[in-house]
Amino acid sequence: MNLPKSLINVCLAMAATCVSFGAGAQSASYSLNATDVSAFGSGSFGSVTLTQNASDVLVSVSLRSDLNFVQTGSHSIFSFNLGGASSVADVGGISFANGLNNAFGVAVGTSNSPFSTFTYEINCVNDCTRGGSGGGYVDPLNFTVRNALVSEFAQLSSGNGTAAYFAADVVNLSGTTGAIGATVAAVPEPETYALMLAGLGLMGLTARRRKLAA
What we know:
Blueprint: H1 5-23, E1 27-31, E2 34-35, E3 46-53, E4 56-63, E5 67-69, E6 78-80, E7 91-95, E8 103-112, E9 115-126, E10 141-145, E11 166-172, E12 177-182, E13 187-188, H2 190-213
Antiparallel strand pairs: 1-3, 1-13, 2-12, 3-4, 4-10, 5-11, 6-9, 6-11, 7-10, 8-9, 11-12
Helix pairs in contact: 1-2
């Protein structure tokens, strides 16, 4: 049975849309897999999940159960890379699970040793007693970046140190502090794979119908 040309065109459009959504990585997850602190043991130490929400990206950072966020020495609570048109003013809604009333800010260009220089960092700027010896900030860390795409986070830090996509300053239950980082590319979320497979399936079906029609 031959498909009408109009239906074939619709199928092609749907396939292209599905593949486009998949290629655009509507959501992605990075593993915080690296550290030079032996007391932390082996990773994974947590994850960074990025979700596209219209023109914004929702960022959620979860840690292993024995770790909390801190801000010690020259380290930052959290560091990340971002291209595109976003700026410091586009980062907002910073929150932690323990509901602290601290004020958190975003700055440009920082290293989180042993990792190299990132585009942005998140730090506490007011009433920061829990960020050092006070037990830390409880995950997840959530924030929003306006005018951004998930794909724009896929940049490695540069300069001296280990290249990473993200890094965080953390403390374990014994009080040992240090940085952890994500050095491996993102793993697409299941819905991204589903969209890509749906698009490829529609394209395959349409190609087969065209071949039979010929």
